[in-house]
Design a protein that fits this description.
heterodimer; A: mainly alpha; 2 domains; B: mainly alpha; two-stranded antiparallel ribbon; sodium (chain A); membrane (chain A); cell membrane (chain A)
Chain lengths: 581, 168
């Protein structure tokens, strides 16, 4: 037997296998996932595994190193979130999201760092050897919030879209901010003296890193979109392009010391629209599934590491430091959300209510990023204390906050999302109102979000689409696409129900299919018999409400819209038909 | 007179507009300067349609966001211009070109034609219009009345969609 030869891949595979089996068991009990977040389960598995390893070897289990995390484990998680980010709500709320992510994180970092430094000054705690810089470093890694675990709770109770996108967007961007600050402070740690010039250079670097990341990401995104224009004959490797270009953008950004996270997000969001129009349906599905799979695996591995490392000699305990860390995390997050929301509400028509604020503040769970960053700290005397503190904070937030947020949300009765998706009429009217508002804003000299949206749309349709889309001859607005989809669905369902009516006195039923294929067109106009109309309206109203949401909710462990295999089959049929053109 | 002095806003006018539309003093003066910059001909009106400043303000008043302190205030007085019902009425009137209080298929087609772009055939557009009317129409007259229109949009947050925050 040659175990040494295969040891590393074998062990990794075993770990992943174990976690996946645990997930199966977890989902067997229907009630369990709604009460306990998946992260809890993963940590629990890690704890057990750590216990076993410790018991067997009587030494500490292996830990993670910097390269593995930053190069292999982090990109899938971020790419997954970036790819599934719904663009329209994201950009509509981008101001608020940026405010929460950037300003909020900075507020948290400095708040926690300084208050912990204050605590360290108290003589009785024996913590005086922790310098301000170390405290700030700790603050920067502990402030990285990962509320994705909470999003699954939101999904359960259909929280309104705006809150969902706020939390989602914030979680994505504040990872980037956190990592940048962490690297900044770490480089400060290595410098013997810090002059004010260095501080300003740090601030400037912050902006350069962010904007540079966006540019790199967009560049790769456009190249990716352009490449997929020509992949018609080799459908099989289409998903590969998406992954390769995204990963390249991440690596390129990291190479130039720019923010890889921002780059990969910008790449994913930039190319999504064009790539999805160019690639086949199967590639599309493949991409989605692979993204979910990889990000799930990454997340799993990190949480298992967390569980494993909790058992062992990695810790130094200090009641005061740890308790105060937890307290400060909660306080500063709550304060940050309160203050920021106050400013946000002054400037925007769409206000964030106090219930929403509570959810955002309470949903500030810490997750994988915190844990990884603390392990990557350079060796210094108090490192183990930091590891212990981080572990406790993560465990606390994931278990306590994660499990109690659902009952609390129910208690507060957060504004529920609408149960149904918009009908054609609604979509038309909403679009109409958008145009109207853009015009009014033009007239009143107010450049709100609609102005930039229109400008971007104009630029898009005039230049980008011609360049990046394969079939430019037939651009269709989303109203027409939605309409066609509805009509097809309706017709298919009617055919299946055996109710396809041919009498002329009934209302019109149209099924649009490409002219190259044989069309099934049953078209009448004429006056509408009220009884039949009611009947058809009943059928329509019953069926229309089951349409897929326009903004699918994000869940790290599931693809959106997974429920109902029959419905899905119908939709795949319709989409496949469209993609054959 | 062709000079600007004749079109300067007097205080009494500002008060009247304030009462009618609910805008604040500073908002009105700011919008007035906007109006004059749009009013290239300096004759106190915009375009050939003769929209004077009062009309301009009345239209914009529909887009004022609904503030919380107004909601409960004046139950007896006339409905403010920026109430949900009035906002929807404004939108409705844009569809209803012949002002017969109904959106007919043709009127809907015209709006759709403007919104959807040149690559859609008339036939397809006609079916979209048919479907929209079919969805909204409750009294079976193949047209959308104001109440039907309101009903279609009952789930949409119109107060937010049709509001611009006029900066102070």
């Amino acid at each position: 037997m040659d175990y040494q030869h295969v040891q590393v891949p074998f062990e990794i595979t075993l770990w992943i296998m174990l976690a996946s089996l645990a997930k199966i068991a977890f989902h067997l009990y229907n009630k369990l996932p709604s009460v306990v977040p998946e992260s809890c389960l993963l940590i629990f598995v890690g704890l057990i595994m750590g216990g076993i390893i410790y018991g067997l070897n009587d030494k500490s289990p292996p830990v993670m190193d910097s390269d593995i995390f930053f190069l292999y484990l982090l990109p899938p998680i971020v790419l997954d979130a970036g790819y599934f980010m719904p663009s329209r709500p994201f950009f509509e709320n981008i101001g608020t999201i940026l405010l929460y992510a950037v300003v909020g994180t900075i507020w948290n970092v400095f708040g926690i760092g300084f208050s912990l430094y204050g605590i360290c000054q108290v003589k009785s705690f024996h913590l005086q050897d922790i310098s301000l810089l170390h405290n700030l470093l700790f603050g920067s890694l502990i402030a990285a919030v990962d509320p994705v675990a909470v999003l699954s709770v939101f999904e359960e109770i259909h929280v309104n879209e705006k809150l969902h996108i706020l939390v989602f967007g914030e979680s994505l961007l504040n990872d980037a901010v956190s990592v940048v600050l962490y690297k900044l402070f770490r480089s400060f740690c290595e410098m013997s003296t810090i002059k004010t010039v260095d501080v300003f250079a740090g601030i400037g670097k912050f902006f350069v890193v962010g904007i540079g990341g966006v540019l790199v990401g967009l560049l790769f995104g456009m190249i990716a979109a352009f490449t997929t224009r020509f992949t018609k004959n080799i459908r099989v490797i289409e998903p590969l392009f998406v992954f390769l270009y995204s990963y390249l953008s991440y690596l390129t950004a990291e190479m130039f010391h720019l923010s890889g996270i921002v780059a990969i997000i910008a790449c994913a969001m930039g190319m999504k629209r064009y790539v999805e129009a160019n690639i086949s349906l199967k590639s599309h599905t493949t991409i989605k599934y692979f993204l979910k799979m990889w990000s799930s695996v990454s997340d799993t591995l990190i949480f298992i590491f967390l569980g494993v490392s909790t058992i062992g000699d990695n810790h130094e305990w200090s009641w005061s430091y740890i308790c105060f860390t937890i307290i400060f995390c909660l306080i500063w997050r709550a304060l940050g959300v309160l203050v920021l929301t106050f400013f946000v509400n002054r400037l925007h028509v769409n206000t964030v209510t106090s219930k929403d604020q509570f959810i955002i503040a309470y949903g500030g769970l810490r997750g994988a990023i915190c844990f990884s960053l603390v392990f990557l700290l350079p060796e210094f005397p108090r490192k183990k204390l930091f590891i212990a503190a981080t572990t406790v904070v993560i465990l606390f937030t994931v278990f306590v906050q994660g499990m109690t947020i659902r009952p609390l949300v129910d208690l507060l009765d957060v504004k529920r999302k609408r149960e149904s998706a918009p009908t054609v009429g609604e979509q038309i009217h909403i679009r109409f109102l958008d145009h109207l508002l853009a015009g009014i804003e033009d007239i009143s000299g107010h450049w709100g979000q609609y102005y930039w949206k229109d400008k971007l749309e104009y630029f898009n349709s005039k230049y980008l689409q011609k360049f990046l889309l394969r079939e430019y001859d037939q651009p269709k607005s989303s109203i027409v696409l939605l309409y066609e989809k509805l009509e097809r669905k309706h017709a298919i369902e009617l055919v299946e129900a055996g109710q396809l009516i041919h009498e002329p006195s009934h209302t019109s039923l149209l099924v649009f299919v490409d002219s190259h294929r044989s069309t099934v067109v049953v078209k009448e106009s004429d006056s509408m018999n009220p009884d039949v109309l009611e009947n058809i309206q009943k059928i329509l109203s019953r069926n229309l409400y089951r349409i897929r949401r326009t903004v699918p909710a994000y869940n790290r462990h599931n693809l959106p819209g997974e429920s109902g295999t029959a419905e899905q089959a119908k939709e795949i049929l319709i989409l496949r038909h469209r993609s054959l053109r | 007179m062709g000079s600007r002095a004749s079109t300067l806003l007097r205080d009494e006018e500002i008060e009247e507009i304030k009462k009618e539309t609910g805008f604040s003093h500073s908002q009105i003066t700011r919008l007035y300067s906007r109006f004059t910059s749009l009013d290239k001909g300096e004759n106190g009106t915009l375009r050939e349609d003769q929209v004077n400043f009062r009309g301009f303000m009345r239209t914009l008043a529909h887009f004022r966001p609904i503030e919380d302190n107004e909601k409960s205030k004046d139950q007896n007085g006339p409905e403010p211009l920026n109430s949900r019902s009035n906002k929807l009425h404004f939108a409705f009137r844009l569809y209803d070109l012949d002002k017969d209080d109904k959106i007919s298929r043709d009127e809907l087609l015209q709006v759709l034609r403007m919104m959807v772009g040149v690559n859609i055939s008339d036939e397809q557009l006609g079916s979209i219009a048919d479907r929209t009317i079919q969805e909204a129409d409750q009294d079976g007259d193949s047209a959308i009345s104001f109440t039907e229109f309101v009903k279609v949009l009952e789930k949409v947050d119109v107060e937010q969609k049709m509001s611009i925050r006029f900066l102070h």
